[in-house]
Structure formats: C-alpha cells, structure tokens
Amino acid sequence: MRFTSEQHLDHDVVEREFLLDEIPGILWTPAAVSAPAPLILLGHPGGLRTMYPRLAARARHCAAEGFAAATVELPGCGDRPRIAAADHARADLRRALEAGEPVDDDIVDRLVLPLVDAAVPEWRAALDALLRLPGIGGPVGHAGGVTAVGVRLAAVEPRISAALLYAGSVVPRALLEEARQVTVPLLMLLQWDDEGNDRQRALDLFDALGSAEKTLHANLGGHTGVPQFEGDDANRFFARHLR
Amino acid sequence: MRFTSEQHLDHDVVEREFLLDEIPGILWTPAAVSAPAPLILLGHPGGLRTMYPRLAARARHCAAEGFAAATVELPGCGDRPRIAAADHARADLRRALEAGEPVDDDIVDRLVLPLVDAAVPEWRAALDALLRLPGIGGPVGHAGGVTAVGVRLAAVEPRISAALLYAGSVVPRALLEEARQVTVPLLMLLQWDDEGNDRQRALDLFDALGSAEKTLHANLGGHTGVPQFEGDDANRFFARHLR
C-alpha cells in the first residue's frame, strides 16, 4: 500500500489516497483519535472520481462518530482497465431497463458474478493492508455499494462484524444462497420507488439473509433519494456493533 | 377530565390516572420541564391493566426525550362495558388464526370498523382535554396500538403532526382508502415474522399511506419482538417532527 496524497478535510478528517497493487483507494481517518478507530469499508457502484463527493460526505459522517473509512476502486471501473464482458452485460442491462423489460437472470449473472469474484478478494487484500496501519483497529463494518459484493464480503470475511446493504435487486440467484450464510448484524436500506431495482426481489433478498439481527429501513423515493437521517441511523447501527 | 391518582416514577416522571367521561386513562409528564411538552398519544391493543408495564416503559422513554405521553382505554376493553359484536368477531378471528386459515374481510370489518368508529372520537376528546392542561403543548404525535385506529386518527385529526404505526394486517379494506388521506410524516414498524399479521398486507398498507415522508423499519422476529433500539429511533423520529 503506497500513499499518493494527503489532505485535511475541515481540520477534522485526514484524507489519504493510496495505491494497492495499482488499485486506487482512499482512506479517511478522524484527525484526533486516541484509541484505534473501527473501520468502515465504503462500497460504491464503481468510479471513485464520480462518486467522490458522496463518498467523502459519508466518510466525514463516519469520522464524526470516530470511525475510519476506506474505499477502493472496483475492477473494470474508473481509471482501471475495462472488462469487455462486463461492459457488454451493462449495456444489455441498460437496454432492458430503458425498454421497461424484465431484467433476465442471464444478464444479471454476466454483469455481477465476475465483478463479485474479482472485487471481493481485492477488498479483502485492502483490509489486510488497512488493518496494519497505525490508528486503525478492528472491528470492521462494510456499508453500501454493489449489493452482491456486500453480501459476498459479509458472508466470507470474518473480520466484518456488521454490514449495511443497499437493497439492490440486481443480485444473481446464486448470491441468494450465499445470503443465507451471512450471520453478522445487518441494516438494509431500501428505496420504495427505486427506478433501477425491483422491490419484491429486494424484499426477497432481505428475507434470504441469514443474520439473526437484521433490520430493513424502507423510505419513500427513488434510487438516490435516501433521506439524510439514514446517515445518522447508519452511524448508530455501526456504533452498536463496532464498539 | 378528573384525576384519580398521582405518583412519581423514578423522580423523573409524574404519572396521573384520570377519568374522562368514565373512560380511564393515564398521563405521564416529565417531572422537570420549562416549556410546554409535546404530547405523544400511546396506542395499545386494549386492556390498560395488562398493557401497563409496556405503556409505562414507553412513557418513561418519551419523558427522557422531554415528551409527555398519554393513553386511554379502548371501547369494550379493560374495565369498560364489553361490546358483544366485537367479542364475537374477535373469537372468529382467533379461530381462523388457530386453524391457520386466511382471515376473511368480513371478520376484519366486524372486528375493527366499529372499534375505529368508537375509539377515534374518544381519543380526539381526550386530546381536547389533555391540550388544555398546563405543561402540555402541541404538536402531537400518535404511536402504536391498533393499526386501523392509528390510520384513522392520523387521517382525520389535524393536531397530529407525526405518527408511528405498527404494521398490522388486520386492517379493513376501507381503511386502505383512508390511508391515502394521511399526509403527516410516518414511521411504520413491521415485525418480519409476525405470527398474527400477514406481511404482504402490512407492506400493502405501507404502500397505500399518502404521506410524502414515510419510513418502514422491519425487524426480524415475532409480534412482541420489536428490538429495544426501535424505542430510540421512535424518539428521534418524534424529535424531528414535534420540535
């Protein structure tokens, strides 16, 4: 892990960009901490530059609660080499959504399964490196991003103690089986009128998750309309489970 | 309104029992307040004596946030004269649930519509009396209890500024129409494995409510398994809307 930049945000948060085997990432740490900070891995749909304002806002919110936050670019996204098969599948998905057609399982599998297979080992490697840094301690939470990546990570990575999932419906059927293996406390956010996700499939995913403590927060509105108070709820959820 | 008893709970909360035209009720107020306290009407399924421990716990939680809380007995419940038709319908409902049969609309209508018709004017009369007391000020929230009573109250009582509803499914079809008239901010609590409520009908009710701000909190577990942290979430919900 090689740091490439460092800046302060509002004096309260230190933001450092890094490269981990050529994968770009960002680490945010509260400027003033005594004990090692719990770490929240911030998921996103791919494209760190585009997502930066929203990620930085979430990281600031984490830091206000005393949490460090970190993210890495997804395979095939942002400045990383494209993955032709994923681009084809994404174009097929967009065509289906624009035509108002149901999204068939084949498109979802072609789009999401290779991404999950490639991304999850990278996030775990990032976790190895991040947890070796001074000032960062376990336990670890994972929040948001591609739903299927969050499910696989929560299922296979024992260092993750709590997870917040966005209730996406673009989840391969095979991942529903993996969802049953998830046992950590979960908070799932669902946008009731999400134009890009099927509500019933999202509810089916919530139902499938194996955790004994799981909570769904559904709010009226479209994909990007998550109310601001859910950020506070997320902090309290992680505070309950990471402290 | 005639007060019949007064006691302190933990020095922090004053609990007063009252009679309002022979309807028993309880008022809890924070012992130390300067400004008039917003009031939360605490709903329940009927039977103040049986429900007292849970109601007092919720009232203490309200008082910790600076809210007054009050409740009145439902028609035909507790020490109030029975209503034969409602008792018959309740017995029919119990038989259907025990036999694992679907609860037909006729039973729900016979059980719930007369209760809603009788209870809502009483709660509004209680509100008239409570808001005349020193130390109690608007705005008013309504929390829990019989779902259909909460829906009707939120739809017709303009002094209610925010409502927390339990996601019951024993709601007459006619109330789904009234639900569309509700415009105040809502928090609905749904128990994912509620043995006495149909999940899909509860989700349909959430969908039908007309409010522009509505949030569903669904938690794993049965009817009485609402997690303790939902009490804090409820206080924050009311603090957002009643202050």
Explain how this protein is built:
- By secondary structure, the first copy, chain A, is of the alpha/beta class.
- Chain A is built from seven helices and nine strands.
- The first copy, chain A, has a nine-stranded mixed sheet with strand order 1-2-3-5-4-6-7-8-9, with helices on both faces.
- The radius of gyration of chain A is 17 Å and the shape is globular.
- Chain A starts with a strand and ends with a helix.
- In chain A, 42% of the residues are buried.
- Chain A binds chain B through residues 192, 203, 206-207, 211-220, 227, 229, 232-233, 236, 240, and chain B through 192, 203, 206-207, 211-220, 227, 229, 232-233, 236, 240.
- Strand 9 of chain A pairs antiparallel with strand 9 of chain B, so a sheet runs across the interface.
Task: Indicate the topology.
The structure is a homodimer of 243-residue chains.
Chain A: E1 2-9, E2 13-20, E3 23-30, E4 37-43, H1 48-64, E5 68-72, H2 84-98, H3 105-131, E6 136-144, H4 147-156, E7 160-166, H5 173-179, E8 186-191, H6 199-208, E9 214-219, H7 229-242
